[in-house]
Amino acid sequence: MSNPKPTPRIRMPSTAKANEVIEVKTLISHEMESGQRKDASGQPIPRKIIKEFKVAFNGREIMRVDWHPAISANPYQAFFVRVPETGTFEFTWTDDDGSVYKAEQKVTVG
Amino acid sequence: MKLARKAPSRRDIFGLTAAGAAAMVVGPSASLATPEKVAEEIKKLFGDRKPGPGKIKLDLPSIAENGLVVPLNFEVESPMTDKDYVKAVHLFAEGNPSVGIAGFHFTPLSPKAAASIRIRLAKTQDIVAVAEMSNGQLFMERREVKVTIGGCGG
């Protein structure tokens, strides 16, 4: 029954050409308990999902996504970003219980 | 895994021969979303603005063996500039316990209004995508996914 702390993983290049569009693949370990299931004794298992995923570059928001219980466990999301200059992409996941999980990746333009 | 150990009596009650992924996702007593509920939700978001066809490429498998992990991938045609970009893409499920799947809010900093995710589907149903452009125009696309449940040809 233990729920280890969700661990984010990011896969993206660490270097890019100026204004290059690159693909980012993200994954975070999380059970995404839908709130629809019942345990062995028939009691509903309370919902606990990551409800929001945000991506920013040097503090400016690029994309924000609301996730609902239909998102699979260990949520995966791939998407595209543009790299205007050397900087840091910040990824933030917000849990139903208010916990925030973060990851970042520096990309160098050269 | 917890639910795989569910008491057999319950299976009998609901007479599910293929009580697999669907039961795990949904729970037998949950009421499901319907096409009407999706339409209602779209109306709630956009009022009387009606979505038209086009612009959205929505990729899903036509048959999903495992309803717990169904790959979904979309792209909305747009130059993604300050003046002309995709503001939001909403994904809805017509046969899940709840209507919403995800809502993407893009900005002109997003180079493409596209993403790949993995979703849960309780049963065979249509997935609906609605894109809202920066000028207020709406587009809609739908795709049916047949969900074959369980591992025994159910």
Query: Can you name the CATH architecture of chain B?
Result: Sandwich
Q: Kindly identify the CATH topology of chain A.
A: Immunoglobulin-like
Straight-line distance between termini of chain B: 19 Å
Q: How would you sum up the global shape of chain B?
A: globular
Oligomeric assembly: heterodimer
Share of helix of chain B, binned: 10-25%
Q: How would you state the average pLDDT of chain A, rounded?
A: 95
Spans where pLDDT lies below 50 across 5 or more residues of chain A: none
Protein described:
The complex is a heterodimer of chains A (110) and B (154). With 110 residues, chain A is mostly beta strands. Chain A is built from no helices and eight strands. Chain A has a five-stranded mixed sheet, with no helix packed on it. In chain A, β7 (87-95) and β8 (100-109) form a beta hairpin. Chain B has a single domain (2-147), classed as Immunoglobulin-like (Sandwich), CATH 2.60.40.2470. Chain B is 16% helix and 36% strand. In chain B, strands 1, 3, 5, 6, 8 and 9 form a six-stranded mixed sheet that branches. A three-stranded antiparallel sheet of chain B has the order 2-4-7, with no helix packed on it. In chain B, β5 (86-93) and β6 (100-106) form a beta hairpin. The longest helix of chain B has 12 residues, at 35-46. Mean pLDDT of chain B is 84; it is low at 1-8, 10-23 and 150-154. Chain A binds chain B through residues 21, 34, 36-40, 42, 44-45, 57, 60-73, 75-82, and chain B through 2-3, 5-7, 10, 24-27, 30, 68-70, 93, 96-98, 100-107, 109-112, 114-121.
